[in-house]
Amino acid sequence: MIRRIIEKELLRWKNNPARKPLLLRGARQVGKTTVVNLLAKHYKQYLYLNLEEEENARIFQQFNNIHQLIEALFFLHNKNVAEPNTLIFIDEIQEVPKAVNMLRYFYEKVPNFHVIAAGSLLETLLDKHISVPVGRVEYKVLRPFSFPEFLLAMGETTALQQLQQFPIKDFAHEKLLQLFHTYTLIGGMPEIVSTYAETRNLSALSAIYESLLVSYINDVEKYARNDSFVHIMRHVIRSMYTAVGSRIKFQGFGNSNYGSREVGEAMRTIECAMLFQLLYPVTDTTIPLLPNLRKAPRLQVLDTGLMNYFAGFQKEIMGTPDLDKIYQGQVVEHIVGQELLALKFNVLNELHFWIREKKDSNAEVDYILLYDGLVIPIEVKSGATGTLRSLHLFMDAAPHDIAVRFYKGKYSIDKVTTPSGKTFRLLNLPYYMASQVERCLEQIKIF
Asked: Residue 1's pLDDT is what?
């Protein structure tokens, strides 16, 4: 499956003379092994080590000396240890926590080898005495397919070319909107996209959705400390897809009797497995931003397609002319959030939203985007610009004049005046341009 965008990101890592061993993070089945295999084509020699295989795991368990470890690995896999243009990929590294500590020695003792490690549930499986070597490794995150990757996988190369233009040509709008509609429906999990690209058959996807969801639920046994915690975590995973969009409380989450402390611990553990992200609100309109962890968060799950299947939204999405009409607009809001994250490869990239909580004047803006030192508000909804009350309140407090609204219409820039008299530029973008928002902001700054 084609993942050229992340492949380019990894090529930048490869060509950096100051590179460190790379820990590639991501939930199960987002294609970590696939992208490393793509990168391996740029090397003369590729050494793949899966630590779920006893032979490979045993080597890491036996050797403490990095030079002896290297010699044994290359010998057993019939590779040339003298070839410097070698990529070593340590897959499922969490199976041997000792191997994580060895990454520092790859950096300090044998920096000529390029090393990537990947593993699901890494943070949750590490022993308390085993820690990732601070300052000795780099991190990248892999998420489900973005809309541009979806178009590439579907063979829609001309649509992708149009998407990357600014502004979008009028004749391309309806087709891109329809394709984004399909992307919103099925999501960005690689196996789902690959199967749909081959078959164009939605019914063929059900078994894959089921398999993915069951595997995530069953995975909790690997990182739950006891049987009671297993039940709590499974409940959270089953409930999370129907809790998307609204702010949540840990106490009694998912109509349960579980307390705030135990649900919070379960959620933070599942968040480490990257099955969802807790989005906490901010109250400022300028940097630096400090999310308020005492306020109720929202949930951003791994993939909108999985959410649609589990929550039963698929038929509604297939029959609607406007995604904003489904589930009070929360499905399209979620896919826009997924797009804002999809092309961010750093571990610290997070989504946040903005709130103002006053006695008689609460407000909430769907997302905020840090761009060029500015905090840009983003709303996801159709309707007249005058109905964007929360956006107006944000812009009254902001020191700039740019806001973004995603909707089903075509690209435009409106001059909007708030009830308090401030005039600002509202960049109206069709839903399918969520992945292009930073490029669009760069363009309008020259006007």
From this structure: 44
